[in-house]
Amino acid sequence: MKEEHHNLKDLDNIKEDETEKRRRKDTSRRKRRQKKRRKRREKKRRTWRKDKRRKQRRENKRKRRKDKRGRWIKEGKRGRRRRERGGRIQVGERGGRRRGESGGRMNEGERGRRVQVGKIGEREKRRKNKNNREEGEKRGGERGRRIKEGEIGKREDVKETGQQQYKTYSLFLSSLRLIVISHVFVCKASIWTCMRAIEILTLSLDEYNVEWRYIIGL
């Protein structure tokens, strides 16, 4: 009985082995197929790229022509008129901008004609006008007019210039500085007390038009 039992167990083992083998075989086959598929796809992509490159090159070659001096010109890049003429370069089109038609160097005499007609050469005129303006107009437009008429810009009416004002209250500020220093170091008062002292002083500083930043800077 025992032996029989053993035999059954062996049979089971054999069955398991078989299935394992089959499974392994299947996976390897699947892997092989995948590999082939990948290779095929890669090859297709490579050839497609190659074809595309070839096509591009062919197109570029077709576009190229030589000009009078034996240089290659690529028609597609240089504007419509060039193509219509069959790729010849005229005098006016060498130099200057490359793309499109405008902006190249002009033919002899063409510039003079255009200046006469008034299509170009505005810049020089403008420069001349700037210097010939009347006094007060130099600031441009509306502001210039107002200054001329005296609506704005009456600086002479101000009592003192900035420099004079500074001289007037510099003495006052130095005394203020002394007060603050004595508060902090001698009386050992809190900074808030000092701030309060400054506040009181600034109220009296209004007539001198002193700004806070001057005081804080001291």
The strands making up the biggest β-sheet line up spatially as: 1-2
pLDDT averaged residue by residue: 65
The termini sit apart by 112 Å
> Helical segment tally?
8
Record field, number of beta strands: 2
Low-confidence stretches: 95-99
Order of helices and strands: HEEHHHHHHH
Structural class, by secondary structure, is: mainly alpha
Strand % is under 5%
The helix content, as a percent range, equals 55-70%
> Outline, from the CA principal axes?
flat
Biggest beta sheet attributes: 2 strands, antiparallel
Radius of gyration over all CA atoms, rounded: 47 Å
Biased composition (Basic residues): 22-69
Region (Disordered): 1-156
Biased composition (Basic and acidic residues): 1-21, 94-113, 131-156
Would you mind describing this structure in some detail?
Helices cover about 65% and strands about 5% of the residues. Residues about 95-100 have low confidence and may be disordered. It has about 220 residues and is mostly helical. Among the domains are: about 65-130, no CATH class; about 165-215.
Summarize it.
By secondary structure, the protein is mainly alpha-helical. It has helices at residues 2-63, 80-84, 110-117, 122-131, 141-149, 162-186, 191-205, 212-217; strands spanning 64-66, 72-74.
Set out the fold topology.
Elements lengths: L1 H62 E3 L5 E3 L5 H5 L25 H8 L4 H10 L9 H9 L12 H25 L4 H15 L6 H6 L1
Antiparallel strand pairs: 1-2
Helix pairs in contact: 6-7
Output the keywords.
mainly alpha, two-stranded antiparallel ribbon, 64% helix, flat
